[in-house]
Specification:
Layout (H helix, E strand, L loop, with lengths): L1 H9 L1 H12 L8 H20 L12 H15 L4 H22 L7 H42 L10 H15 L3 E8 L2 H8 L1 H18 L5 E5 L3 E7 L3 H15 L9 E8 L6 H18 L4 E3 L2
Parallel strand pairs: 4-5
Antiparallel strand pairs: 1-3, 1-4, 2-3
Helix pairs in contact: 1-3, 2-3, 2-5, 3-4, 4-6, 5-6, 8-9, 9-10
Length: 306
């Protein structure tokens, strides 16, 4: 058993080549290296199991092997696997190990009991890894599903943008953590309620969709947009200062005057982190204060926080 384990450990690259040939077409290239690396680590753990007199219960190495299986399951999920694909990955690995041992070890020179013992341990380890992998994969799928449902529930149906709650809880705090400077623009359709009363719901839909479309065209890559309430759309601009955000707001207002249709009057408030707020709450408060001032001025005004 010692000799078989040493052969497998020395032959990990070759076994991985065989596994790659068997499963390569089912692997997303972006996640392929990490997935193969995890499979290689499992092979090394298996050789330790072969050399150990301990029963299968100790194969988990006090949770270390299970943690490795969890990591592999994450890579399988990223690579687009389903549950069947997870099973096939481990079955292909078992076949590759058995084929390698048949080719590299003269089993006729090995005691029959040892060969039987090796095969039993291979089956035990493979079955354990497959079951643990499926459990971990199922947890990941459920987590992703819950996250997707939460994202969908926090998305505005009209514009497809995140709503204010998702923006406040996750998007803005994350941006402040990841960037040294962040600007924010909040646009408000002027006289929205009064115009809806006279022009109807169709006008409201058209106005909001037009504003969302213009903001998408004008804002740079990496910007995050969200809908606030009935008539407000916000743009989060990582890496931008207040002055540049003000000029961008002017561009949005200018674009709203172009093309067919009635003039859409929009007011805007601009603020930036860290000069106008040291956290998400202060930044939003500064932006809304600027917006309220712009609305009092009227006439598609833009006000930057002070």
């Amino acid at each position: 058993m010692e000799g078989i384990a040493e052969e497998i450990r020395a032959g990990v690259p070759e076994i991985l080549d065989g596994w790659r040939d068997a499963r390569g077409s089912a692997v997303d290239e972006e996640f392929y290296p990490e997935l193969v690396e995890g499979i290689g680590k499992i092979l090394v753990v298996f050789t330790e199991f072969l050399q150990s007199p301990s029963p299968l219960e100790n194969f988990s190495r006090e949770g270390a092997t299970r943690a490795l299986i969890q990591e592999i399951s994450s890579r399988q999920r990223e690579a687009g696997r389903d549950a069947v694909g997870v099973i096939e990955d481990y079955m292909a690995l078992r076949r590759c190990v058995w084929r390698f041992v048949e080719e590299r070890v003269d089993l006729s020179e090995v005691d029959g009991g040892e060969v039987s013992h090796f095969f039993v341990k291979l089956m035990q380890a493979s079955d354990w890894a497959t079951e643990a992998g499926l459990e971990a994969f199922d947890r990941i799928v459920h987590r992703d599903m819950e996250s997707a449902l939460g994202q969908a529930a926090a998305t505005d149906l009209l514009t497809g943008l995140p709503d204010r709650d998702l923006f406040n809880r996750r998007l803005l705090p994350r941006a402040l953590q990841e960037h040294e400077r962040v600007a924010i623009m909040i646009f408000d359709v002027a006289d929205f309620s009064d115009t809806v009363a006279t022009e109807g719901v169709a006008w409201a839909r058209e106005a909001l969709l037009r504003l969302a479309s213009v903001m998408e065209e004008a804002t740079p890559e990496g910007a995050v947009r969200a809908r606030f309430g009935d008539d407000e759309i916000c743009a989060l601009l990582p890496g931008m200062n207040a002055e540049d955000a003000y000029r961008l707001a002017e561009e949005v207002l200018e674009r709203l005057t172009e093309g067919p249709g009635d003039l859409l009057r929009v007011d805007a408030g601009v603020a930036a982190y860290p000069e106008h707020g040291e956290n998400a709450g202060e930044l939003l408060s500064a932006a809304f204060k600027a917006l309220r001032t712009a609305k009092r001025v009227g006439g598609s005004g833009i006000v930057a926080a002070r």
